[in-house]
Design brief:
Helix content: 40-55%
Structural class: alpha/beta
Number of domains: 2
Largest sheet: 7 strands, parallel
Order of helices and strands: EHEHEEEHEHEHHEHEHEHEHEHEHEEHHH
Number of strands: 15
CATH architecture of the largest domain: 3-Layer(aba) Sandwich
CATH class of the largest domain: Alpha Beta
Number of helices: 15
Length: 396
């Protein structure tokens, strides 16, 4: 098939949605499909270097969150119509909900090409007291860019979070089928007003050329825990660091921890753990370096609550046969055998879970074997089989 994957996001930004898009593209290409990336780019000619078929320079970028905003005007729609027609695209696969995604949907509709939409952003959260003040302006600007009116449903108390959810619902209801990487998000999308069919297809992860292995006795003798995410409040690096420091004190420093990721809370994290030989803070690392850290770890920690849909961290950990310590009861996809959930999300419960795991090598090894079982959920072959079935249903 000939598939156009569309993203308003800059694909050079390090985030779960971007990682998922690249993994989807890789899985589909390796299965023999033609894939065309259509996304925002920061400057002219950046698309060629990044394997982007159509690079769109946005009208502006929202500061702080690095979110590109393009206007779904006639010129952009015409450009996309020309590309989709010339390349005989069979299906348009949206990965975002803003102006570029709406322009691609309008172009596809004009050409009679079906559209599917993978939702990554329904749980986005904003921070800061000023968000309520700027939400009406944000709404007006996003509606002008997308050339649609958004619903006004009140999903949650925070106005800006409501806006983001309604932006997602508006986009989802324009397409033929919505893809949700998790069952719990699919349920929330239906409850939130999405009326088109929703199919659950977990995000894929491409296997490394290096074979994955179950934990060895040597690796669990002195356990290593890896935390990898953006260093932002919604990912909770600071509470997890508090739990780690408490667990180290309770176990006589019987384990090690690596923190990977950049963000606004990185300086606070570095100050908290400064001088502790058992904790390493790496900042941002490339994908290969992260994979190496996963392979050298005994456990991967994912401690967000109420924010994540189906984190790529889970897919990465399972693909490398590593168990996952997690806090959010909604995050069950892919953790059926390799997941260990804390009793609650607070610091004391995280510390207790860490102590229970690092003092029980057999349990860490059992989680590793369980992750090996779970890894099939995120395999490229499983993803391609499921998503091509979705494509076939709308193309038929």
């Amino acid at each position: 098939m000939r598939i156009a994957i569309v993203s308003d996001f800059y694909l050079d930004y390090i985030g779960g949605a971007q990682s998922s898009i690249h993994e989807q593209e890789t899985a589909l290409r390796e299965a023999g499909h033609d894939v065309f990336l259509i996304s925002s780019v920061r400057k002219k000619l950046a698309d060629a270097a990044a394997n982007i078929a159509v690079g769109v320079i946005p009208a502006f970028t929202v500061p702080g969150v690095d979110l590109p905003i393009s206007r779904a005007g006639d010129a952009l729609v015409a450009r996309l119509c020309s590309f989709l027609s010339t390349h005989e695209v069979d299906v348009v696969h949206l990965q975002t909900e803003f102006g570029l995604a709406h322009a691609a949907t309008t172009a596809a509709r004009e050409l009679g090409i079906p559209v599917v939409h993978t939702v990554h952003t329904f749980y986005w959260q904003s921070a800061g007291w000023w968000q309520a003040l700027v939400t009406p302006v944000m709404r007006a600007g996003l509606e002008i860019a997308a050339r649609v009116r958004f619903p006004t449903t009140k999903h949650v108390p925070r106005p800006s979070d409501n806006l983001l959810k309604n932006v997602t619902v508006a986009m989802a209801n324009r397409v033929d089928v919505v893809i949700s990487p998790s069952a719990h998000q699919a349920d929330d999308l239906r409850a939130g007003g999405v009326t088109v069919p929703i199919v659950v297809v977990p995000n894929p992860i491409a296997r490394s050329l290096r074979p994955a292995t179950v934990l060895t006795a040597e690796q669990v003798a002195v356990p290593r825990i890896l935390w990898v995410a953006r260093c932002e409040p919604e990912k909770r690096p600071v509470p997890f660091a508090e739990a780690v420091l408490d667990a180290l004190a309770r176990t006589g420093s019987a384990f090690e921890v690596d923190f990977v990721g950049n963000g606004t809370q990185l300086p606070s994290l570095e100050r908290m753990v400064a001088g502790n030989a058992q904790i390493r803070v790496h900042g941002a690392l490339d994908h290969d370096a992260v994979l190496e850290l996963i392979d050298n770890s005994s456990l991967v920690a994912l401690v967000s609550v109420g924010f994540d849909n189906q984190p790529m961290t889970i897919a990465e950990a399972s693909s490398r046969y590593r168990g996952v310590l997690y806090c959010d009861p909604n995050l069950e996809t892919g953790l059926e055998h390799g997941g260990f959930r804390t009793a609650s999300p607070d610091v004391d419960a995280m510390s207790a879970a860490i102590v229970a795991l690092v003092t029980d090598p057999a349990r860490l090894t059992a989680l590793s074997r369980g992750a090996e079982q779970d890894s099939v959920t995120f395999s490229a072959a499983t993803y391609v089989e499921r998503v091509v079935a979705v494509y076939a249903s709308v193309c038929g």
